[in-house]
Amino acid sequence: MVKQHLHYNKQNKQMLMRNLVSQLFHNEQITTTLPKAKEAQKFADRLITKGKNNTSKSDSLANSFLIDPFNKLKNQLVDRYKDRQGGYTRLHLLGNRQGDNAPRAVLELVDNPRDIKREVLMRTIARESLLRKTSWSPEKSNILRQLTQINLSKSLRYLSQEEKDTFHQNVLDIQDRILAESQLGLRRFDSDRKPQSNTLTWPSKGKTVYAGERTSGMAKSEGSPISLSKGVFRKSRKGPSNKLV
Question: What segments bear the compositional bias annotation Basic residues (predicted)?
Fold first, then answer.
């Protein structure tokens, strides 16, 4: 196994890690190069473990390392991960950076409000439910694929009841968005899908964007009612078939 090396001296590397981990705890999601993300991931996991120890020595070490969000570590993150024995962070590959071709990655805290893996799971559940021509509810989890059921149980394992209700409501909202985009003819909803890439980005050239799907660079307001009505009331737009299956 090749060890990652950051070409910094000891003082600069220490300051770099302090900045990255502090930003991670503050924003709960950061984008950086892959080697930096892997190094910051180690420091973040150790600091959360020290925060859970709840001793004066561990608190002093964490407070001296973090630049600002020590209170958030003690008041929010420790409570969020009190039942977890590890694995507080997650890495997502983000392709290579334009220019120097450096590999990029998204480093995020698990179960954060913008959790990427949970967002992908919600879209998967919404799509598989619509393929069975039914609306999603927790009692209908048996209609999902076996792998999706496993991922669902893992994702909801450490969530509170309020967070679980929010999760299920978000799935229903995604279903409504898929149906709206499909019926308006803006995007196709098909069962024939291209194989997914192992990164968050996907080449936009030649890729079919399906109903409810979001790609890199797409505006966040793309799924709003106003954006859905564009092209429908202003001018006729020939879209693919709006059949659900």
Answer: 232-245
